[in-house]
Every structure is written in structure tokens, then in C-alpha cells.
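INFO batch 0412 | record 1 of 1 | parsing
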Amino acid sequence: MSASIKRDEVYRRRWWILAVLCMSLLVIGLDNTVLNVAIPTLVRDLHASNSQLQWMVDAYVLVFAGLLLTAGSLSDRFGRRLVLSIGLFVFGAGSAASAFATSASMLIGTRALMGIGGAMIMPSTLSILTNVFPAEERGRAIGIWAGVSGAGIGIGPLVGGALLDHFWWGSVFLINVPIVIIAITAGRLIVPNSRDPNVPPVDPVGAVLSITGLMSLVFSIIEAPNRGWTSPAILAGFTAAAVILFIFIWWEVHSDHPMLNLRFFENPRFTAASIAITLVFFAMFGSMFFMSQYLQFLLGYSPFQAGIRQMPVALVMMMVAPMAGILVSKLGNKVLVCTGMTVAATGLFLISRTTPGSDYWNLLPSMIVLVVGMALTMTPATESIMGSLPKEKAGVGSAMNDTTRQIGGALGVAVLGSIFSSTYASGFGSAISHMPAGVSEQVKSSVGGALAVAARMGGAAGQGLYRTAVSSFIAGMDRALVLGSLFALAGALVALIWLPNRPEPDSAERERMERVYVGRGSEAALSPAEAEALARETGAEPVRAEFLEP
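INFO prediction complete | emitting C-alpha cells
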């Protein structure tokens, strides 16, 4: 089968391919928000502390972020569908092991295994999408991809809540297994196995340096709230991360086959969009860490009821993200990213106005504003990153996109969580000084623990502790979200100053691009010299990825 015919076949089934990629991506979105819904249950059943709850989230993030660049590089070299399939298998195995974990520590370990699979899944989906869709359709496809990625915000809590109401907490992980099986099977039948046709040698030194450097960085970020930002262990971790990542940069600059070509960062589209993605996920991950606890512990909803109340968030994300993919070709990246980050900042600030007397209907409009902002930001920022790179490097490019998400998310949970924890604990003052050490520690460790102690105490004393716990939680959450809002505004400023506003190409350019991107009308295909000239004119890159036989 000739390469041009192969490309024509891939183009004709591109929307079916996108459906399979979205199904693969869905398990990651479900996993993150399902865990948030299960947090109160894990506190009761596994006696998990605030620190352990944070590590259930962050063990996944730590491994995911550390392996992304390596996984993206391997997918470019050995085939993106192959890496996607392996990632789905590992993720499914980790999900099954998580379902039957018998302790908080064991669950943290199985979540790390899921992180290995996730690191292989997410960049593979985006890199395959980038190679399958031509430039004029890429924004729309990425919008759908981003919508599905964000839809887990609402779908996960709903599915998780329904499962928790009828089964044990392990069912929220077990639900991933059938989705993984379907995605692997459909991927083998529909998705092409593309790769970089000019495969350079593997860069093992770069891989080791990136893994150890990123893991040191994320670990230090995660542990800083618990051990103290100036503690010797944390300072040593940040120092090690800085040294290792500096060596990584030096190695990649001097290597003749770098895993990550650092010249990518000379492109302002790539760099500014990466910073914007980091800051929006800083705000999002940090804020969502509080939402499930607020809905269940403070407003008293069951897991399923909390899931239903987060469905509007998912629906808004699913509607706005694809719309942003269409608008990006009309308005440009700068306008959408600046607008989205500003709207997200507004949503976070509105949520930070929550008081002990607020209810769900006070919270919902603010949550919708936040999600609209995130949806408007993620699609054009992701399109900027992927559209600024050669398609044969789509694996590494998508891995960079996902790495910025994960580092931003880890920072958000750590920094905002640290501010929340210190404010929450200080809110009790001397009110718990008369309690035994173990009881007072339970009260300060989590709002769930404080409410359980208040229920056992009963009477006026229990009511007083209940009110103090609620007001302390709200005060901590509000203070953290104000900071999240400021970081989102910083992202809008970065986009305003540095992110280019790529205009839509005119009809003549689009016709020429069609001849380059997907091989349509291959008899009229541009010569290599013409293709390179077009790439310079438009800021785009022609398809060079090799589609392998099934």
C-alpha cells in the first residue's frame, strides 16, 4: 500500500480515530475525579490522613509527570499506537490492583503504577490526533479532545458516586478495566501506528536525567507543605532537581540525538502556551481538591448526590471546549487564552467568596464561570503547542504539553493545599487544647476527622467544634482560591505579552496546505522545497510522520 493511499485512508476515518483516542483519554479523566469523590469514604474505611489523601492524588502525578517526556519520545520512535496500547494495559492493571488495596499505603503504590500507564496514554492520544488531522481541522479536534479530557470533572463524580452508593470504594477503580479493554481492541482495529520516519538513536542519558529531575522537583513540591518549605529535606530536593535538570538541559543541547530539542522553546507560541497551561492547571487542580470535600463534608451530600451536582460542570466543559476549537481559527490564540484565563480567575475569586452559610446554588454559578474559563484556555493553548512543532516530534511535543499540566497541577495541590492546611489548623486556636493529643491531631488532620470527633462529643461542645471546623475549612479554602485566582491572572498576562495571535490562513493557503498535510490529491503534492517554504510562511509543518501497516 503506497504512503499517499494510506494517508487518504487515515484521513477518511479520522473522526473514528478521534473517538477511540477520546475513549482512551476518558479513563484518565475519570480516574482523577473519581478519586476525589472517594476521599471521604477513604478517610472512613482506610483511616487515611490529609497527607495520605494528598499522596493518593500525587503518587500518580509524581510518576506521570516524571515519565511523560520519556514516554513521548519512545512513542515517536517505536510507534504511537503501540505505546498507547501498552499504556492502557498498565493503567488497567494498576486500576484492578487499586480496587483491592487493603491499606492507604498500598493504594498509594498502585496509584503510582497507574501513573506509569497514564504517562504513556495521554501524550500518545494527542500526538496521534496531531498527525491524523490537517491544520484547518486540528483546532476543532483538539477542542473535542480537551472537552473529553475535562468532561471527567463531572462524569467521574457521577459514576463514582453511583458506585459508592451501591458497592465498595474499590469499584471506582475497577470501572476503568472494561473501558481499557474496549479502547485497546478498538485502537488495534482503527488507529494507525504512526512514528517519526527518521528515527534517531534512543537517548538513555536524557531519559534518566529527565525522569530523576522531574520526579525530584514534583516530590519536593508535594512534600513541602508537610515538611516545611525551608526544611533540609525539601531544600535538598529542590537543589537536586535544579542540578539534574540543568545537566539535562546541557546534555540535550550538546547531544546529536536529543530526546527534547530545546530549540522548541525559541518559538514564543510554544513557550507562552506552555506557561499558560501550567498556570491554569495550577489553579484547577488546587481548587478541585477542595470541591468534593466541601460538597460532602460541609453540605452533607452523599457521593452520588455530589456527583450529580458536578454534572453541569462536565456539560459546560463538553460544550465550550469544542466551541473554543472553532473560535481559535477566527479569533486567534492570544485572544482566547487571555479571555479564558481572565474568566477562570474570575470564577476562582467568586468561589473564594464562599461563607459557612453558602449552599450549592451559591456555588454553582461560580463553578460554571471557572470551567468556561478553563475550556476557553486549554484548547487554544494546546493547539499553540502542537501547531508550533514538526509533526514527527508530536510525541515529545504532546508530552511537554502534558508535563506542564502535571507540574502545574502538583504545584497547585501543594501550594494551595499548604495555604489551606495552615489556615485550617490555625482556625481551631485554643479550642482543642484540652483534648488528648491523638484526638486534637485527628481534628487538625482533616475536616472529616474534625466532624467525626464533633459527632462523638455531641451536645453544645460538639456543636461548637462543628462550627469551628466548618469556618476553618471555609477560611482555608477561600484564602487558597484567592491565590489561585492571582496565578490565573498571571497566565492571562503571559499570554497577552508573549503569545502570538496566529491568524487563520486564507483560502489559497488552505488549499496549498491540504496538498501537504494529508496527501489529498497526491499527484499535486508540493515538492519538499515548496513544503518547507509553506511551513515558514504559515508557521505550520507538513506531515512527515510515517503511518505503518496494521
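INFO post-check: The beta strands are 193-195, 546-548.
INFO record closed
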